[in-house]
Design goal:
The protein is built from 12 helices and 16 strands. By secondary structure, the chain is an alpha/beta fold. InterPro entries: BCAA_transport, Leu-bd, Peripla_BP_I.
């Protein structure tokens, strides 16, 4: 009996040690709610990135990668609690997420408390790697300033008058603040700002205030819409006929489902984080081919970002030689790695991933379900002077 018990104990310990040898990652993100499409893309891309970077083994140095999913339901209090659970109860090596900037801001202090890495993707607000940042935070996604500087390049011009419409939370507020700063010295100026609730579907009042503020101005007049999720503000503002006041609408890039609405705006210029036909590299070729084969569609906006994150995780652990937090921080600061968008680099000062953006012009093709953002110019890391905001 003693021998049997001892053998059982050894077996149990062996299994426990094997489990402890796994590289465990928590993906804490809004699987349900208004950003569900963003979340699915992000997770699909993450798993494809881990697969690509490990050559299909899903192992690093013989240790299996295990990904635990946790649904924040886009609630900040859930994000905080679930990240605490991941670090404390699940003892994950690192975490990734979330979708919402508001949720991300609630999660940042948890990473500092547990002294564990949180890789932020795809939440965008500048404050994540700005005033609310801590040394355990890295972001593979773009930030509001990257969106804003790229959009300013696409929209600005001497004497251009711009009004803005954005959601009234961190993503919208930070985005417009960065856009305003990016326009300095370009000859363009913001003449009116509107912020509305994230779930707004009726834009009549906001549109009327914008048009009243702009209708008597001279020169080029544009409304920049910064929006995430549903509501279709571009289409509803366009239905109010801004052209009668000489006003054009403009916005940045978006997921394929949203790009269907851009067919109303042939010739519109803006900046986009990713569109599957724009990058030219082997990583993107693999992503496009595999995504089409597996899902019957091209990879989308956040799929590429998820893949970027998965590759970053593998490269960081390989470079660090372990999942020790301090070793990972040392490895990741200044780390460069290849992604579907080309080479990216974690800036040492704030751990923001520096990356290309794409200046586009909308082309409408009757044979394509969505509007096509044709490349005007790739805006490289050197073209995008992104402020450091955590100092």
């Amino acid at each position: 009996m003693k021998r049997i018990f001892a053998a059982g104990l050894v077996s149990t310990l062996a299994l426990a040690n094997a489990a402890l040898a796994d590289i465990t990652i928590a993906h804490v993100y809004g699987k349900t709610g208004p950003f569900e499409a963003y979340a699915k893309q992000s997770h699909d891309g993450l798993m494809m990135g881990l697969e690509y970077a490990t050559g299909g083994t899903m192992e690093i140095n013989g240790e299996k990668i295990v990904v635990i999913e946790k649904d924040t339901q886009l609630k900040p209090e859930n994000g905080k609690a679930l990240l605490e659970e991941a670090y404390g109860d699940d003892e994950v090596d690192l975490a990734i997420g979330p979708v919402s900037s508001g949720v991300a801001l609630a999660m940042l202090p948890v990473a500092a408390e547990y002294e564990k890495i949180l890789i932020v993707h795809p939440a965008v607000a500048d404050s994540i790697t700005g005033e609310n940042w801590n040394r355990y935070i890295f972001r593979t996604g773009r930030n509001s300033s990257q969106d804003a500087v790229a959009q300013a390049i696409a929209m600005a011009g001497d004497g251009v008058k711009i009004a803005t419409l954005a959601q009234d939370y961190a993503f919208g507020r930070d985005g417009i603040a960065a856009f305003r700063e990016a326009l300095e010295g370009t000859g363009a100026e913001i003449v009116h700002e509107e912020y509305v609730p994230t779930d707004t579907t009726d834009f009549t009042a906001a549109g009327e205030r914008i048009f009243n503020a702009m209708k008597d101005l001279e020169g080029d007049k544009k409304v920049f819409v910064l929006w995430a999720g549903g509501g279709n503000p571009m289409g509803k503002l366009n239905a109010m006929d801004p052209g009668r006041f000489g006003i054009e609408l403009a916005t940045g890039g978006n997921i394929l489902a949203a790009l269907t609405g851009y067919k109303e705006f042939p010739g519109m210029e803006g900046a986009i984080y990713y569109y599957y036909e724009l990058p030219d590299n082997e990583v993107n070729d693999w992503l496009v081919e595999q995504h089409q084969a597996r899902f019957g569609s091209p990879p989308d906006f956040f799929t590429a970002g998820g893949m970027t994150t998965g590759i970053a995780v593998v490269e960081a652990i390989k470079k660090a030689g372990s999942t020790d937090t301090e070793a990972l921080i040392s490895a990741m600061e200044g780390m460069e790695w290849m992604t579907p968008k080309g080479m990216m680099k974690f800036r040492a000062e704030d751990h923001q991933a520096l990356q290309s953006m794409y200046h586009f012009k909308i082309r409408v093709d009757d044979n394509v379900e969505w509007a096509v953002p044709e490349l005007v110019k790739e805006l490289t890391i050197d073209d995008l002077p992104i402020p450091i905001r955590n100092q």
